[in-house]
Design brief:
It contains 17 helices and 11 strands. By secondary structure, the protein is an alpha+beta fold. Among the domains are: 216 residues, no CATH class; 97 residues, no CATH class. Helix 2 runs antiparallel to helix 8 and helix 12 crosses helix 13.
């Protein structure tokens, strides 16, 4: 039995509302970084205009959070593929976007969104290709590590952020839905699908690793470093799995490994690879002192290859209820941590089409934050005995909570029309100025007509 209790750490267990859970990861330091470097870009862009209107003014932390709320709302509404004109169309679009800010202001902010110092970027980029977003990425990942205790099983796999613009480390992976994009190597909790940590893949030659280590061994050890000597298991696919990795994790890191392994590995005996040696549905086992190798041929043998799995966790040739080896059943149960997380990111994705790769990574961070914070929110609610939320209502509530403080700051502005004031108050449940002053608020018919 594990000597740990999976779930949110004490730092995260106090978060009750969606906004509190979300800001555990996107903390003030990240927001301040974005505000600082975005304002430098805004100042440079504003010089191109003769008259500085509200559209081209500097931004604030409250406005950046409102922008995050727009991204999240567009994700749960599945509006992220729409143009801004469609999103801000009063006749067909959700009113929450107009309540947050104008279309022109959103487009201008989006074009100016920056995450690092442009004056030193070129010098730093010579050492690290990821520098345009490295700082806030590292803060976010450190928070992910700190705020959750994983279960007994961790999944290590890759995620591809779809991107077709220019990027010094863009990849082509044919078996991924996006095909082209930015590869992230992630470790997720196999049970809850919580993102524990991640490393961007910047290229084979750039990755700093010890002599003799394969890329799969390097990434697996780096991603699981925080959980070494905890007797947890790591489940990997055949890009990561190798005999040296399994032995290294077992002997030096106090962790076991279960994963599919490629047949071209030199440690695999020829007799375990050949399909003709197996009857359909049969299994062959090979044991060493520390490892177990399983060769399984599915029932429809004419259409499938032999499946090879390596395990440092299993020691017996056990066959499960499905007539498959217990090793395969365990692998199928624990392999989906990253894949399911990736599917969740895609289903209610907050990302928009962009030609700037740092912005693509930033959208990925928002998606990961939404999922991680939703997991923490529901686990905290379960401990309190409260009802858990489905992800779409959670995202809707989170988006409104992020937008509301900025909308309340907008209301006193004399530039807002009466109709827009009514819209903001109605969408975000804010008392109208007339109500606050003891006057009659807008009539219900007028309010509904605007919305």
């Amino acid at each position: 039995m594990p000597a740990f209790t999976p779930g949110p750490t004490p730092e995260a267990s106090h978060a009750d509302t969606p906004e509190q859970c979300f800001t555990l990861f996107f903390e003030d330091q990240i927001i301040d970084e974005i505000v600082t470097w975005t304002n430098i870009r805004i100042d440079a862009e504003a010089m191109k205009y003769r008259k500085i209107t509200g559209t081209f003014q500097r931004t604030t932390p409250a406005e950046v959070r409102a922008m995050l709320g727009i991204f999240i709302s567009s994700g749960c509404q599945m509006d992220n593929h729409l143009s801004t004109k469609e999103m801000w169309n009063p006749a067909t679009a959700a009113p929450v976007y107009r309540a947050a800010m104008s279309e022109g202001r959103f487009s201008f902010l989006l074009s100016c969104l920056r995450f690092d110092d442009p004056d030193t970027r070129q010098e730093r980029q010579a050492m690290d290709k990821f520098v345009p977003i490295r700082n806030i990425w590292q803060i976010f990942i450190d928070n992910c590590k700190m705020l959750y205790v994983p279960s007994q099983n961790i999944t290590v796999d890759e995620q591809l952020l779809g991107f077709r613009g220019r990027c010094p480390f863009r990849m082509y992976i044919p078996n991924k839905p996006a095909k082209y994009g930015i590869k992230l190597v992630l470790a997720n909790d196999a049970q809850s699908k919580y993102l524990l940590t991640g490393i961007p893949y910047l290229g084979k030659l750039v990755t700093q690793r010890q002599d003799g280590q394969s890329l799969g061994q390097h990434f697996t050890k780096e991603l699981t470093k925080q959980y070494h000597h905890t007797n947890r298991n790591v489940t990997t696919d055949n890009w990561f799995t190798s005999v040296p990795l399994a032995i290294d994790l077992l002997q030096n890191c106090g962790m076991t490994l279960v994963g599919t392994i490629k047949a071209n590995k030199r440690e695999i005996p020829q007799v375990m690879k050949v399909k003709e040696n197996h009857a359909p549905g049969s299994s062959a086992f090979l044991f060493t002192k520390e490892l177990t190798l399983v060769s399984f041929l599915p029932d429809k043998a004419s259409k499938k290859k032999v499946v090879l799995l390596l395990s440092s966790m299993h020691t017996q040739p056990s066959i499960g209820p499905t007539r498959m080896p217990e090793v395969i059943e365990f692998y199928n149960k624990t392999k989906g941590g990253v894949d399911t997380f990736d599917q969740m990111c895609a289903h209610y994705g907050c990302g928009r089409k962009t030609k700037r790769w740092p912005l693509c990574v930033f959208y990925g961070m928002i998606n990961a934050d939404v999922i991680n914070s939703w997991i923490i929110h529901n686990e905290n609610a379960m401990k309190r005995g409260d009802n858990q939320m489905q992800r779409r209502p959670y995202m809707q509530a989170l988006a409104l909570a992020l937008i509301k403080p900025w909308a309340e700051q907008r209301l006193p502005s004399s530039n807002l029309s009466r109709q827009l004031r009514v819209l903001i108050c109605s969408v975000l449940d804010i008392p109208t100025p007339g109500t606050l002053e003891g006057e009659a608020g807008p009539v219900a018919a007028e309010s509904s007509q605007v919305c």
